[in-house]
Structures are given as C-alpha cells and as structure tokens.
Design a protein that fits this description.
alpha+beta, 85 residues
C-alpha cells in the first residue's frame, strides 16, 4: 500500500517521521512512479519511473510544493512500476 503523507491523517502515527522516506516493500519492482491526484479537479498525473531513493525525493518535493500552495487535499503517492513482459 502506498504511503500517503497527509497532514490530516496523523492519528496513531509519529508525525516527526516522513513516510515518503521509509524503505519498504514498494522497492520490489522495476521502479517507482510518483502519482499526484487532485480530488477537486479530478486530475491525475504520474512522474517516473525512478529508482526508489529518487522517487521518494521527487514525491517529498512535490508534497512540499503542494503544501506551500495550501493544496493539502491533493494526494502524492508512490506506486510500483512494472516493465511489460
């Protein structure tokens, strides 16, 4: 399951930890895509694929940019990328 950094979902979670920087099972693939979803406009964009560390940096940067513009309802997530067989 992608980790979604959302300032409104901090209950039961250490708010000092950055979930986009944690290594986990997402790295078992050909790369990671950064998915950006806007529930207001319905827009969805993906960026990548990136190696895991670069994808986490990209997602973290996009989250910071959106937060700075007070667009906290926009979701930034990491999703697995698999090359065609």
């Amino acid at each position: 399951m992608p980790k979604l950094p959302c300032p409104h979902r901090t209950a039961g979670r250490d708010v000092t930890a950055d979930p986009l920087l944690d290594a986990d099972g997402l790295e078992q693939c050909d790369g990671l895509m950064v998915l950006v979803l806007d529930p207001v406009t319905g827009a969805a964009d993906t960026y990548g694929p990136y190696p895991a560390p670069r994808a986490r940096e990209e997602a973290h940067g996009r989250r910071r940019e959106l937060d700075a513009e007070d667009l906290t309802e926009v979701t930034v997530a990491l999703v697995r990328h698999h090359r065609p067989r």
